[in-house]
């Protein structure tokens, strides 16, 4: 990747040495790469990253999720258990701004690449650990996976509806919420370093990120001394709210009525039916109490109409309503343009990738570049970061340090 293309971005010139794998760490560092940082993935052919398999893979066995999460980065192969390779990694950390890892607690310490070891060489280093349960406390050695973390945090008991089994949020909730927290923690540490001149050690627990994200529900449960209700698509504060079947196979529209004015607008859009004129539905508390009854009447109306028409009619009346769209309906449409960009992958051509969902008025984000092959940037990175000559790199290769 041409580093000159990152000039003018918020994190231009920031170096990230990325030891992370699979998703939480790589997602965090992809956000940093989008912001212009030079992110170098430290990998090894002996222990390559093992991304999830999917229906789509390129000729190198890299699934679409891997291409998306690791784009705009560079890859270097180092055998960290080789003494010479370990020395290379320490030298790189000495000139890095940020080191990231999401191994289990203790792994980086055993490799002698922990914060205490590396900050001796680089006091300005920002070191970020993203283990499942953090590096301190009784759970530090627990093995964590997204499903386990959702269950242990209580998240699965507040999703779904009453009577459902514990229900997980799909798409690896904990990895993404952990990666986001790590990213803004890094940005804060960079801001502090600009003032203090010293780095920081960020010990992030993906479990605690999940707990923090449902914090208000936990606090209200403590005050009320009761479990939070599992509301499914409903709300404890507004009614009616839900998804309603529309004409066609498996077609739906989401409707959320926030106040009396919107309720009256919904009633008018439905045709001012007699069932809506009863006194028990005139107030919010009454509508919450008789939600099942209202749902039946609304769906009697929506089931006869395409969801696009339901959406159009209710929006025109001032009622919040959106037709349910599938993933393929979101790609290539104007209202999703900010979330997607095209990227040229050398082996498969043009592919769609997610982008930062915001833009800058005073700077720009980095355009997406293909995800690297294993070790494809080893020489370039060693030239750029350590100013090594070709002959010095050849020697490292002969010593089996770069594998």
Give your account of this protein's structure.
This protein is of the alpha/beta class and 403 residues long. It has 2 domains: 3-214 and 373-398, Rossmann fold (3-Layer(aba) Sandwich), CATH 3.40.50; 241-327, formyl-coa transferase, domain 3. Helices cover 37% and strands 14% of the residues. It has 16 helices and 11 strands. It has helices spanning 24-34, 64-69, 83-94, 107-110, 115-119, 146-153, 173-196, 206-213, 215-224, 260-270, 284-289, 291-302, 307-317, 327-330, 378-386, 390-398, and strands at 15-18, 38-43, 74-77, 98-101, 126-131, 200-205, 241-245, 252-256, 321-323, 340-345, 349-354. It is elongated, with a radius of gyration of 26 Å. The relative contact order is 0.15.
Give the secondary structure arrangement, pairings included.
Elements: E1 15-18, H1 24-34, E2 38-43, H2 64-69, E3 74-77, H3 83-94, E4 98-101, H4 107-110, H5 115-119, E5 126-131, H6 146-153, H7 173-196, E6 200-205, H8 206-213, H9 215-224, E7 241-245, E8 252-256, H10 260-270, H11 284-289, H12 291-302, H13 307-317, E9 321-323, H14 327-330, E10 340-345, E11 349-354, H15 378-386, H16 390-398
Parallel strand pairs: 1-2, 1-4, 2-3, 4-5, 5-6
Antiparallel strand pairs: 7-8, 8-9, 10-11
Helix pairs in contact: 1-7, 6-8, 7-8
Summarize the structure.
By secondary structure, the protein is α/β, with parallel strands linked by helices. It has 16 helices and 11 strands. It has 2 domains: about 240 residues, Rossmann fold; about 90 residues, 2-Layer Sandwich (formyl-coa transferase, domain 3), CATH 3.30.1540.
């Amino acid at each position: 990747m041409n580093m000159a293309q990152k000039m003018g971005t918020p994190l231009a010139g920031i170096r990230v040495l990325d030891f992370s794998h699979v998703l939480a760490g790589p997602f965090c560092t992809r956000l940093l790469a989008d912001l212009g940082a030079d992110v170098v993935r430290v990998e090894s052919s002996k222990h390559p990253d093992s991304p999830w398999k999917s229906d789509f893979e390129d000729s190198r066995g890299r699934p679409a999720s891997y291409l998306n999460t690791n784009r705009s980065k560079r890859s270097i192969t180092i055998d960290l258990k080789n003494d010479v390779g370990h020395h290379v990694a320490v030298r790189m950390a000495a000139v890095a701004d940020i080191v990231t890892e999401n191994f289990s607690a203790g792994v980086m310490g055993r490799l002698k690449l922990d914060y205490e070891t590396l900050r001796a060489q680089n006091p300005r280093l920002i070191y970020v650990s993203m283990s499942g349960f953090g590096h301190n406390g009784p759970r530090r050695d627990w093995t964590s996976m997204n499903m386990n973390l959702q269950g242990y945090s209580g998240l699965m008991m507040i999703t779904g509806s009453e009577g459902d089994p514990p229900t997980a949020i799909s798409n690896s909730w904990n990895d993404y919420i952990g990666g986001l927290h790590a990213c803004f923690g890094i940005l804060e540490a960079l801001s502090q370093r600009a003032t203090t001149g010293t780095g920081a050690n960020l010990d992030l627990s993906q479990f605690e990120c999940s707990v923090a994200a449902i914090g208000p529900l936990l606090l209200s449960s403590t005050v009320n001394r009761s479990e939070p209700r599992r509301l499914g698509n409903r709300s404890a504060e507004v009614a009616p709210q839900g998804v309603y079947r529309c004409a066609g196979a498996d077609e739906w529209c989401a409707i959320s009525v926030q106040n009396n004015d919107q309720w009256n607008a919904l009633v008018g859009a439905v045709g001012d039916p007699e069932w809506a004129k009863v006194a028990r539905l005139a107030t919010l508390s009454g509508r919450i109490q008789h939600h099942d009854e209202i749902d039946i009447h609304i769906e009697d109306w929506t089931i006869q109409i395409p969801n696009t028409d339901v959406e159009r009619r209710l929006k025109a009346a001032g009622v919040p309503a959106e037709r349910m769209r599938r993933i393929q309906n979101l790609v290539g449409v104007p209202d999703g343009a900010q979330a997607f960009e095209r990227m040229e992958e050398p082996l498969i051509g043009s592919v769609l990738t997610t982008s930062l969902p915001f833009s800058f008025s005073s700077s720009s984000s980095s355009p997406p570049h293909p995800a690297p092959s294993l070790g494809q940037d080893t020489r370039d990175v060693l030239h750029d970061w350590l100013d090594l000559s070709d002959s010095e790199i050849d020697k490292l290769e002969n010593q089996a340090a770069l594998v």
